[in-house]
Amino acid sequence: MKSLIASLIFSLLLVYSCFSQSIQVSWDKTTVLIFDSPIQSVDRGNRFLLSEQDPKALNMLKLKAGTRELPETNLHVLTEDGDIHAFEVFYSENPVMTTPDFRKHTLGKKAISGYGFDREDFRKLAEHLGTASSSLIKKQYRYEVQFWLKGIYYQDGLLFFDLGSRNDSAIPLEVVGPEARVVDAKSKKQGSSRELMLSPWMDFSQDKPILKSGENRSLLMAFPVFTISNQKRLIFYLKEKNGDRELQLSLKGKNFCKLFLYLCFTLNQLLHMDQENYEFLTEKLKYTGFEAKLNTKLKEEIKSGKESFSIGTTLDIEGKKMDVDLHFKKSAISDRYFFNKFDASLRNENPELEPKRHTFYQNQGVTAKEAFNLLEGRAVFKSLTDSDKEPYKAWLQLDLSAKEDKNNFQVNQYHEKYGFNLEEALRKLPIKELKDDTKTEWMIKALQKGNTYPVVMERKGLEEVMFVEANPKFKSINVYDASMNSVKTTEILAKDQKQSPEQKSDDLSGKKKDLKQGEKAGIPEPTLSQSVSKARKGPRI
After folding, report:
1. Is the pTM of this model over 0.70?
2. Digit-coded pLDDT (tens) for 193-230
3. For residues 371 and 380, what is the distance between their CA atoms, to the nearest angstrom?
4. Which of 190, 227, 278, 360 lies 20 to 30 Å (CA to CA) from residue 303?
């Protein structure tokens, strides 16, 4: 009687405990706890409570009492799905329950073994294969219900069968199965055959047994690897509970082996493809100059499986607003997404005026800041490829006065053969930073990106902070003062304005003499005015 009362009390504790659950352990009996996910860590309140994780089934924990005098203690188990299971542990010579099952849904669930997959991986894989496009291997359509097999995959000692079903009828289908059987098909004369029911390592058929009208369902199943001979068939059955609708898919042994060899695929690529694609695209966005705050939205869109999607953002550059829409598209031959282009719209300081809009394609390699500089009217120097995939370098500059068919600005290119040498153009100016090789390198890189760069130059005997930018069209450098007013290079290069007419005449005659000597040596040196004049008459692009 006392034993019965104790058992009832323990059962009530097990069912109604909110934060911790009660379990019993014994000296000569093993108590086995079963969880939804593999066990990550175990914390015992008493060292005499012995615990061991099962090496084959990673979601099972074995418990025993290390002494018959084990006092009441506690136990905490952390599983890979993030759940913390708390237990009050009592000693009993005859535990009421030796296999407590703490899984949320126990029907049809197997223990999770050391195959390298857990239940969450399996769920993700089922979702991925359910939406991935592939050729059908087998299909049956009866009672307005479709049942198909799309793929057979192998990984880590498991065979995965990508099954699916669709209910086109108006009546919901309560699914039983799929069931898998290996049939030893004998000839009709012999009149008999043997069947072997295969037990799946994992499947999701019981998670949502009702297949609603118009609903598609992935029915992924996994089995420890097996093969069948040419005299056998592998048959999948999909049945209706409390109904007569039944569908079958049958594979001959010889065809099964061929399909297995042909469709053998590393599932790690499927399981981690989204993550790899996400990491690839985040690196691409980072290189292009877009903020990491877009990454969360990017991950959501990749998971959606859409054929294409776009993400919008607004950048604040040099006190101006530029609205950007980034466009992504799925590959025609895989589920991988690519970052194809972005639309940039630079707002005008006067809100009544239309913003400047242009689409930049990824084969141009233009970053967000370079797009801003181009819309500001400056030029950028890029490494490009022609139609024959041959590399070349050129300055790109938008003609903000001319629009093309797709409402983009006309893009002018100034190739290396055009004759603009940035460093040579800079060295014609009295820029203080040119005396330092490192500062010169920084300046050239900044100007090639289309930036306006601050420098120190002498004007009228005084050093001033000025700004320079590349102007490949006229093979020159644009110069601005500290207030960003344009400064003529002739003003910077002019001699002291207080020179006498005689000194000016002597200087001029000396220049003419030097010029004649240069011409005799075959290396004429034009004056600055002649250089500017020639540049303005340069070839049209």
Report:
1. no
2. 567 777 777 765 555 678 788 877 778 888 887 878 77
3. 9
4. 360
